[in-house]
Amino acid sequence: DVTEIEEKEAQAKQEEQIMKEQELSNLLHEKRFLKALGLAISLDRPHTVLTVVKAILREPEGRRRLEENIVRLRKDQKEAVLAFLVTWNTNSRNCHEAQAVMETLLRHEAPDTLLQFSGIKSAVESLLPYT
């Protein structure tokens, strides 16, 4: 009977998820945005990433701080943010944040580098009608 083992694994995953959520909340409270972005991306939470982006933009010199944080992300994290911002851009409430992140990516990534992002073609096709 493996049900007990599976239940323990499921409970451990749930506890880990709760711990990460608490850590994310603490990072946002402490204004440690780079770590908060990384954690939200690793949890695959587009809305949470958007919340972090909005928190950064509310700071004094928010655009500059957003730029500093986005530039420091790894390539895979930037790819994830690009996928997220495609969805954000379709909603008028979130389009300004999506455009700010997209502007940062376009300014700091070489065209050849952007072309190597996974899903770049579909992202551009999805962004064009709303941008």
Keywords:
globular, WD repeat, U3 snoRNA binding, mainly alpha, 131 residues, TBL3 protein
Compact summary:
The protein has 131 residues and is an all-alpha fold. It is built from 8 helices and no strands. It has one domain.
Task: Set down the secondary structure blueprint.
Blueprint: H1 3-29, H2 33-42, H3 46-58, H4 62-71, H5 75-89, H6 95-108, H7 111-115, H8 120-127
Helix pairs in contact: 1-2, 2-3, 3-4, 3-5, 4-6, 5-6, 5-8
What does this protein look like?
With 131 residues, this protein is an all-alpha fold. It has one domain. The chain contains eight helices and no strands. Helix 2 runs antiparallel to helix 3. It is globular and about 55 Å long.
Order of helices and strands: HHHHHHHH
Please state roughly what percent of the residues sit in beta strands, choosing from under 5%, 5-15%, 15-25%, 25-35%, 35-45% or over 45%.
under 5%
Count of separate DSSP helical elements: 8
Overall tally of domains:
1
Helix content: over 70%
Overall mean pLDDT stands at 92
Distance between the termini: 55 Å
| Strand segment count | 0
Biggest sheet details: none
Work out the radius of gyration: 17 Å
- Unreliable segments (pLDDT under 50, ≥5 consecutive)? none
The rough form would be described as: globular
The helix-and-strand class reads: mainly alpha
